[in-house]
Inverse folding.
């Protein structure tokens, strides 16, 4: 798997903070989740033994989130802080410093296979992933030429269900370390949820198999689906890079439109965390019809179609398949 | 390499990742720009060794503003009717995993914007808007134009002279709305002009508008009734009114500053209180903090996001913990500076330069330097005259040999 690298080799130790002492069994574990998808994982692992506060809530964009003093207070009183890592939460360092928290900061991508940021090779996925060629990430992060404004790794690892299983394992490990008395419960919950994840992954692979190979190129707002592409074979093109922080330039958009025509993209989608205007413009210029809304970096609210991770992934593949086969 | 101007600390590093420069230096440079209360001059002091770098003669006593990038300092000379740009001499270039610093001599940029009674100065996304009260006109210029010495400003007019404010907000301009019935009083709201200068959406009420600040992606104006909170809307600015909480005593904010690192606003609220504001929530948006005496000046800490500083008339500097919403430490620095008397009498001002908090003491002709980590006074820097307004510019970065 040459386009990947072991995260462990990149970031070394996950937590720079000492592990907090185990909490008394009578008290729930106070857990802070950096964004809604992690909060859902934590809820499935922690069950009734944890109280979870989510910093970036449903439909929120963690790339551009501005932490508030109240967030610092919340992190300061937490027992465990769960984050994605890979520079997804650009606000994390300043928030942790301001909070003076003693809780472990647990990066859930620890130990996973990390994709390289497509921007490193030129914007808009100019690489050969869809042609069978894969790019190697640097052996040592940060030792390359060029500008790396959003980190060298693609942070959206949860878009592979296989990686989601790792997130869940890391959450269970973190909860066990902080609350040994509840460890059996956490492990059992993680195993049960893991079975649901395995079933989900099988559903996604089956759905992709029904899509003709020459119709597996689609358009979204930002490069959030690299792991989905890598794992399941749908090629995603996007006007914005892995972070929504920087807007696409006119030349970026023009290049993408040219590529859409060359690659004969099958469908185009808006995302729940980005402004739909640019996608609507591209749809208008390419004649593609917007095929619906995909959930990338956040869940929907509880009344939406993607209130949990399982629902989000099912909604996304159903929407993608429906738009492509209906086009 | 032009670091000799900096008197900067330089730590040689062997940096293996650069192909163009096998040898790089880590350089830290901080400069203080200080205006005088009586004389038309700006003194530049190296904040690291306390040495004076230069003095610029200007046309009138000035209030000072620094740009977000730190490349430019503006001297707003209200009585002289001039705003002058000064190139700070320190600039940064972001290289992702590291930043480069370039340190040159500070100099007058050669750009002056003239008009009647320049007052409020606001930067937004690299565009500077100066409001000229005597004309009711805002003149807007980019940092690029200032540093190139080109006076390429555009002008936006309001209906009448006023103690107003303007913000260049992307392709729109936010403008204070004059009080037509009582022209000598503060503006009554904010209007939005599109790129062509045409008003859209009417006037957003903000009685007694005075005070503006940005924190992250939110801009706020202080009103007698609360805050006008501006964020990016769909194609035009989204503006909403956040009323003061019922639990607050009578009062209003007239000076506002915005947090860095954490998103919040800090304002005065009455003479002897400050208020911490989280404009993203409806309940508990305002946290009131009582001060021991009346407030003279306050500043946020751009490095240690948890702290802001308030100077009070009893000569004390207070370290404000914005997370807990309480004063964490206090330090006596000067003789008392009473808030009785004229609002513009010489009184201390606060700036943060890296690990140092610097407080002007105009009547003693010194700058007091406080270590930001220990919150203990570490020294004084003598400055001729009555050092009054102060801003700091600087930071750390790499320089590469041969570049």
């Amino acid at each position: 798997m040459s386009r990947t690298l072991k995260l462990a080799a990149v970031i070394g130790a996950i937590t720079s903070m000492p592990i907090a002492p185990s909490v008394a069994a009578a008290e729930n574990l106070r857990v802070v989740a950096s964004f809604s998808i992690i909060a859902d994982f934590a809820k499935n692992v922690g069950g009734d033994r944890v109280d979870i506060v989510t910093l970036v809530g449903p439909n929120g964009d963690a790339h551009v989130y501005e932490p508030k003093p109240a967030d610092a207070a919340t992190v300061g009183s937490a027992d465990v802080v769960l984050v994605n890592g890979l520079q997804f939460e650009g606000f994390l360092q300043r928030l942790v410093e301001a909070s003076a928290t003693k809780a472990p900061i647990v990066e859930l991508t620890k130990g996973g296979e990390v994709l390289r940021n497509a921007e490193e090779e030129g914007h808009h996925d100019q690489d050969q992933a869809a042609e069978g060629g894969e790019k190697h990430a640097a052996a040592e992060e940060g030792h390359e030429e060029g500008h790396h404004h959003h980190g060298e790794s693609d942070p959206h690892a949860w878009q592979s269900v296989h990686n989601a299983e790792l997130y869940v394992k890391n959450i269970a490990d973190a909860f066990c370390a902080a609350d040994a008395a509840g460890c059996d419960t956490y492990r059992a919950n993680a195993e049960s949820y893991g079975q649901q994840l395995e079933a989900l992954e099988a559903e996604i692979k089956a759905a992709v198999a029904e899509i003709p190979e020459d119709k597996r190129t689609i358009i979204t707002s930002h490069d959030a689906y690299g792991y989905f592409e890598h794992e399941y074979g749908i090629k995603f093109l996007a006007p914005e890079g892995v972070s929504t922080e920087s807007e696409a330039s006119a030349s970026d958009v023009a290049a993408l439109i040219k590529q859409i025509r060359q690659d004969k993209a099958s469908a185009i989608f808006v995302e729940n965390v980005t402004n739909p205007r640019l996608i609507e413009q591209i749809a208008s210029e390419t004649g593609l019809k917007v095929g619906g809304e995909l959930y990338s970096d956040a869940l929907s609210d509880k009344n939406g179609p993607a209130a949990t991770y399982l629902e989000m992934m099912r909604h996304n593949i159903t929407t993608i398949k429906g738009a492509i086969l209906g086009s | 390499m032009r670091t000799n101007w900096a008197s900067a600390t330089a730590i040689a590093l062997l940096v293996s990742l650069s192909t163009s420069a096998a040898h790089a230096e880590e350089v830290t440079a901080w400069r203080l720009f200080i205006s005088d209360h009586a004389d038309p001059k700006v003194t530049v002091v190296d904040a690291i060794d306390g040495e004076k770098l230069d003095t610029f003669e200007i046309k009138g006593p000035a209030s000072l503003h620094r740009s977000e990038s730190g490349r430019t300092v503006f001297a707003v000379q209200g009585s002289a009717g001039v705003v002058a740009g000064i190139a700070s001499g320190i600039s940064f270039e972001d290289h992702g995993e590291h930043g480069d610093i370039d340190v040159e001599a500070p100099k007058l940029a050669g750009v002056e914007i003239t008009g009647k009674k320049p007052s409020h100065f606001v930067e937004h996304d690299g565009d500077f808007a100066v409001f000229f009260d005597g004309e009711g006109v805002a003149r807007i210029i980019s940092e690029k134009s200032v540093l190139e010495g080109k006076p390429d400003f555009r002008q936006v007019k309001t209906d009448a002279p006023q103690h107003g404010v303007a913000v260049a907000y992307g392709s729109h301009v936010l403008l204070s709305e004059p009080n037509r019935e009582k022209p000598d009083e503060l503006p009554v709201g904010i209007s939005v002009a599109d790129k062509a200068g045409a008003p859209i959406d009417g006037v957003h009420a903000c009685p007694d508008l005075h005070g503006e600040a940005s924190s992250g992606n939110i801009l706020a104006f202080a009103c007698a009734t609360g805050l006008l909170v501006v964020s990016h809307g769909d194609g035009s600015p989204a503006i909403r009114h956040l009323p003061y909480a019922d639990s607050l005593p009578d009062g209003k904010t007239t000076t506002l500053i915005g947090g860095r690192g954490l998103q919040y606003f800090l304002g005065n609220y009455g003479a002897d209180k400050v208020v911490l504001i989280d404009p993203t929530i409806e309940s508990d948006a305002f946290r009131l903090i009582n001060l021991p005496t009346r407030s003279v000046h306050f500043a946020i800490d751009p490095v240690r996001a948890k702290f802001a500083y308030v100077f009070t008339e009893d000569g004390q500097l207070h370290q404000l913990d914005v997370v807990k919403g309480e004063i964490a430490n206090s330090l006596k620095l000067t003789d008392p500076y009473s808030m009785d008397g004229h609002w513009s009498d010489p009184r201390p001002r606060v700036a943060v330069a890296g690990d140092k908090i610097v407080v002007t003491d105009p009547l003693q002709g010194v700058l007091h330097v406080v270590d930001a980590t220990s919150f203990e006074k570490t020294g004084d820097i003598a400055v001729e005259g009555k050092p009054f307004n102060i801003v700091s510019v600087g930071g750390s970065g790499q320089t590469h040999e041969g570049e």
About this structure: Chain A touches chain B at residues 64, 66-73, 76, 94-95, 97-100, 142-149, 275, 277 (CB under 8 Å). The beta strands of chain A are 4-6, 29-35, 50-56, 80-83, 105-107, 113-115, 217-219, 235-237, 267-271, 290-294. The longest strand of chain A covers residues 29-35. Residues 4-196 of chain A form a domain with the Rossmann fold fold (CATH 3.40.50.1980).
